[in-house]
Protein 1
Amino acid sequence: MQFRKNWTRKQLLVAFMLYCQLPFGKLHSRNPEIVKYAELIGRTPSALAMKLSNIASLDPVITSTGRKGLKGASILDQEIWDEMQNDWETFVEEAVQSLNEFSGEQIEKITGIEKESYIGKTRLVETQARVGQNFFRASVMSAYNEKCCISGLAHPSLLVASHIIPWKDDETQRLNPRNGLALSMLHDKAFDLGMITIDENMRVVVSHKYIDEGDAFYNQSIKSFEGKLITLPEKFFPELSFLEFHRENIFEKREFSL
């Protein structure tokens, strides 16, 4: 009789990081990323794909769509999910440390994370910041399938994982994908300046501080999206309280000019 080996915490941390950074539609055993990670942590691609499905069963955004076949999360799965939601920075740090230990050397390319020593003391602060930024971007982009949620632009080099509550304003939410929107560079800048925001119904609101009927580009690229429902993510739905913060503290509060 064959006995299934229990998942270790380090293996699960890697699986959770992978879940954050892959679109839901790519959580299958044929995905090259899953094959690569499975070999790294000593699991089969099928086992890792199944674990990712287990993790998805804990995600309220995924389960709210009525997808079937998502079940089997363990008590430890639930514990790590809760830890991740409560402290994203610690989760990312522990997950990257686990990746380093499994690899036995520095990571060459792990879904948005560049090769470097992440647990050494040299340039630790700068390195951790960049790792966090890479994780945040990969997680937000995967949630929105690498498309701007306002315009639908799908060119990765022209997209930004935009913070709803700015990086400098709340360090506890810096790496939380629910504090992110996938936006084009133009709409990211407009969002950052308070020229646009998102209301409680997930519709675009455009500031009236700048009105120039003769500015055809502005009218087409920004003003025309007034009232448009954003494309909602498959996971990591934007936190309503974060959007409220943006509306109350940033929208139409900052000085801007075109």
Note: Residues 105-126 have pLDDT under 50 and may be disordered.
Protein 2
Amino acid sequence: MGKRGIEILNLDKDELIRMLNEALSEEWLAYYQYWIGARMMEGPMRSEIEPELLLHADQELGHAVLVVNRIIQLGGTPVMNPSEWYQLARCEYEAPTDPYVEVILNQNLRGERCAIQRYQEIADFTGEKDHSTHQMAINILNEELEHEQDIEDWIADIERMRDDLRKIRME
């Protein structure tokens, strides 16, 4: 970011860089959680859900690219060591130790809800003070909201399928 671009920021730049590094750490953990979860997943609708989870993983990686670019534009240094991700991240990484599809989806749903909160906070912090970061945060927030809806829909579909099977067994 040019000097004038930094001068017109009407906020604590160091605080923003801290927030963005936390978000960056969370994006990397979310990427891996989606990616490995999709690979390990077992159960109903796996063949339909796996490609979508891999798409979500790619989108999380894209968010990381946007965030790291913004940190650099602001004159900051992105978190350089993956071992720091856990220290900086508020959103938890949940290893897919139980590969059942519904467990994986619920893990990802918790991650999405945490990401929604993160980007809402960044949007609130930057609104009317840093238009570039604000727009980036809103764009990422919208994708995170779509991810949450996708996951909620899959969980509802699995529950409907389970209910239909119960009805069939009772007949």
Note: The mean pLDDT is 94.
Protein 3
Amino acid sequence: MLSIGTKAPWFEGTDENGNTVKLSDFAGRKLVLYFYPKDSTPGCTAEACDLRDNYERFIALGYSVLGVSRDSAASHRRFIEKYQLPFHLLADTGLDILKSYEAWGRKVMYGKETEGTIRTTYIIDEHGVIVDAIGKVDTKNHTAQLLK
């Protein structure tokens, strides 16, 4: 994981609507940037819905929320529509953002070592500095972890 106190790596990606989203779009605002393995899977849905259910709390505290996975924009659109997610999701099909945020690599699933998305969340402050990093995400209670 990236270290707290370091500058967040620059990124540019495409959201579910084909719009370009860059780190600089969030200058002057706090950002919850979360990385997750796959749309519409149980853990990823629980995490997204927890963030959705608490979205107004994030907005009231001055945070934007942005999710990133390797799924396509079309997959993200379906995920957002199905679960009425109020935030954007970036389609990182080339793994550039995932790798720059150290959210892609070797992991063990069901006792087997694989390469894939490492569920990770970063909080980036108004100046583009990482102020918190969560590697052991509680998908059902992620908001509580973030707003501790």
Note: The longest strand covers residues 63-69.
